[in-house]
Amino acid sequence: MPLAVVRTNLVPSALPATLLKDLNDTLLQEFPDIDPQLAMVELHTDVTMLRHGSTAPMVTMEIHHSDVRVNTVNKRHVADKFALLAIKQMKINMDRVLILFFDTRCCSAPEVTHL
Q1: Tens digit of pLDDT for each residue in 3-20?
Q2: Contact present, 56 and 14 (Cβ < 8 Å)
């Protein structure tokens, strides 16, 4: 299940109405083998954020995935897709966009048996 968690210091009224759908569509394009019912996007707006000593418009995106195709070779391509979306739709400068990847296969704890 891919999950995109998007945080920005922009207020909701500064964002296009289609942003959530466009984020979801980008997620499904980059993870084509996923059942669309399993894709998830969280959008957190009006977040207090500071980068390089400035509160100018910015965004962070966390892409949580369990896809072997997202690796050090091609994750730059995936990041570029999400960054372009932020630049075009959110009107945020490239140096104010941060995209992080979390491979959930590495985070899953083994099942614990209770005594």
Answers
A1: 899 999 999 999 999 999
A2: no
pTM of the predicted structure, to 2 decimals: 0.84
Rounded CA separation 13/37 (Å)? 27
- What residues have CB less than 8 Å from 96, skipping those under 6 apart? 51, 56, 57, 58, 59
Instruction: Return the closest-CA partner of residue 23 out of 9, 11, 8, 73.
Output: 8
Enclosing H/E stretch for 113: none
Beta strands, E only, 1-115? 3-8, 40-44, 59-65, 97-103
**Strands laid side by side in the 40-44 sheet:** 40-44, 3-8, 59-65, 97-103
Q: Rounded distance, CA 90 to CA 107, Å? A: 31
Here the tokens at position 98 are 């941060």
Report DSSP letters for 45-56, one per residue.
Answer: -S----BTTB-S
- Answer yes or no: are the C-beta atoms of 27 and 41 closer than 8 Å: yes
